[in-house]
Structures are given as structure tokens and as C-alpha cells.
# Entry
Amino acid sequence: EIVMTQSPATLSVSPGERATLSCRASLGVSGYLAWYQQKPGQAPRLLIYGASTRATGIPARFSGSGSGTEFTLTISSLQSEDFAVYYCQQYNRWPLNFGGGTKVEIK
Amino acid sequence: EVRLVEFGGGLVQPGGSLRLSCAASGFTFSDYAMSWVRQAPGKGLEWVSTATANGDITTFADAVKGRFTISRDNSVNTLYLQMTSLRTEDTAVYYCAKRSTAVNGHFEYWGQGTLVTVSS
# Structure
């Protein structure tokens, strides 16, 4: 089983600042890594797949990078609508584990 | 527009059963794997089960293996999750999710979820 670990658990950022979220896999997942955004009371939404490809309709301020076991989601300039919880997830092998999430809150 | 609508959630006693349904539209349902993902109150996301596009391969998280069954009816574009021997720890919002390929892939689209509460 591949364990996904996200850090930090909470990130306090001011609007307009850059946010960097980390995700580590206990085993290599190649590029089979996705990022999701979830706002309170809403379903998750796909942001990034294949470690670095933005999903349809996702703004360019969201970018993903990494390979193997270390991955990063960067939000270049935080907008008010970006304050949410972010999850990484590997789909290289079963079970399809998610990380514990990073909450991005207003500083 | 892809649309996934879950229903069938509710309150059930421990040891009871419940069947969830997910009605899909806006894409060729029979071409894609489908999954269930759940989220306990205040907790993170947990993958539950996946059925491949034609339903011939199904996989389950260890926490539900032997108690939950996933199936799909491609003629009516609907995914199901039959849950038996329910436990209090199965309490969660259950999301239906479209995968990006016929077998695996990322979770491309999500429904709004249906709440299952297991309590006496």
C-alpha cells in the first residue's frame, strides 16, 4: 500500500501571495498523481492530473510538479476563491490512496 | 456537461444494509471506469471501490471488502453500491466519481454526494 503524506496540514497565506503545498508518496507513483480542491459543503474538484497537467477550466495560477515520490502544488497568487482544502492522490496502484489534505486559510 | 447524481443515502442501524445509486449523464457511461469515494464527517477522502467500464473487474478498499458490492448497469447509465453489515465507521458522505479511462485513471468528475449515517 502506498501512503500519501501531505504537508503542511494548514497553510496560512495572504491573498495575492504564493502557496506551495507538498505531497510525498511512500513508494514511487511515476506521474500518476492528481490534486483536488474541496471547499466546505462541496464535492472535490479535479485540479491537476499526471502530476502537472491542469484539468479543464483550471486557472493557470495552479501548477503541479514532481515525479516519483515528491510532488508539489503551487498557487502563484492566491485569490479569495482558492481558500480551501487540497488533497493529493496516487492512481499508480491499488488501493488508490489520498493524502490527509492541506487546508489553505486566510492569514 | 458531465453530471453525476447520487441517491439512496439515509439513516441505517448497525448491521443493516443500504444501496446507493449514481445516475450519470453527459458522457458515454460504458466507456469509463467509475468509483465510489467517501468522506467521514470532518475527515479526509477515502477511496471505497471501483468498477471498470464493462464491470468485469471490481476492486475494494480493505475496510469494505466482503461487505460492499459495486455494480453498474450500462443500459441505464447507473452505478450502484450495495452496502451490507454496516458499521458506525461507515458513516460518511459517499461520492460517485467518473474515472478518466476504462480501467483506472484519476477522478475526473464528482457527484455532490449522499450522506449515509449508521447509528442506533
